Amino acid sequence: MGIRRGAFSLALLLGGVNAGCVNMRPAPQPLSAEAAAGSPQQVWTTRAGRRFTGQVALEGDTFYGAGVDRKVYAVDVMTGVIRWSSRLSGIVGGGLILSGNTIYAATSRPQGRVYALERNLGK
Question: Which residues of 3-32 are buried (b: 16+ CB within 10 A; e: fewer)?
């Protein structure tokens, strides 16, 4: 009984601390015109996969990433155009490694494999 009461008290205490800390930060203020002038601006959007897993890579003007949709993507960072995508047999859990003209990606289930893809074409 004492353990339950102690755990309940701890939960109440932690909940109270969290609730008390929520409004401690001041509300964000809009940027002045001078500050906004130097801010980066969004120039494009693209839909490349649902969520990238592990390490992604940027080389030159190309972004490389692998997602839970079992695909490796090469995206042009200047235009947002997907240069290529390559579907693998499983989810790429550890990200990508670039070496020379090759991209390495290791998949999990089923039958985990390591793939070596040609960087320019994704094959």
Answer: eeeeeeeeeeeeeeeeeeeeeeeeeeeeee
pLDDT for 18 equals 44
- Token look-up 């401690």 returns 24
Beta pairing, strands 92-99 & 82-87: unpaired
**Higher-scoring residue by pLDDT: 91, 29:** 91
What is the third-level CATH fold of 57-118? Thrombin, subunit H (2.40.10)
Amino acid found at 18: N
pLDDT higher than threshold 50 for residue 68:
yes
DSSP 91: -
Domain boundaries, the chain: 2-37, 57-118
Cβ of 89: how many Cβ atoms within 10 Å? 13
